[in-house]
Specification:
Blueprint lengths: L3 H20 L6 H23 L5 H5 L4 H22 L7 H20 L6 H18 L1
Length: 140
């Protein structure tokens, strides 16, 4: 269960994430919608920090921030902005995440092999081929 609970959180959150992205009114400015979304996420994150920090100094945590936190924030913004617009331009909720995640998986497989020295097996390459076939079938 230790290996499964984070996957279940990601799948559950991603399910509602896509439902929310698809259901966000097209009449709202996406930047304002994201600002409210981030305000809520900020309140929850700060509360979780305060509950879990056991007296840690928030200033000390600021000192630990490096480029990854900044780029991660930019990536999260771009991801959410992209998903809002995926649905605004007409993608279906039963197709867009699948196409995006298959493409992502293939890219990360290559990045993992090149930059993180992860093993690229015949099985993984065959999986990429199946994914490519799936993308072709979805696109037809």
């Amino acid at each position: 269960m230790q290996m499964m609970w984070p996957i279940l959180v990601v799948v559950g959150a991603n399910t509602f994430y896509n439902i929310c992205a698809k259901s966000t009114p097209e009449t709202i400015n996406p930047f304002f919608s994201l600002a409210v979304t981030y305000a809520i996420a900020t309140v929850i994150s700060v509360a979780a920090f305060l509950i879990s920090s056991h007296g840690k100094n928030i200033g000390g945590e600021f000192a630990k921030i490096n480029w990854t936190t900044i780029v991660f924030g930019i990536c999260i913004f771009a991801l959410e902005f992209g998903y809002l617009n995926i649905y605004r331009v007409g993608w279906n909720i039963n197709t867009a995440p699948m196409v995006a995640n298959i493409m992502l998986a293939v890219i990360l497989l290559i990045i993992g092999a090149i930059f993180f020295k992860e093993t690229l097996t015949v099985r993984k390459v065959a999986g990429v081929a199946v994914c490519a076939a799936g993308l072709i079938l979805i696109g037809k």
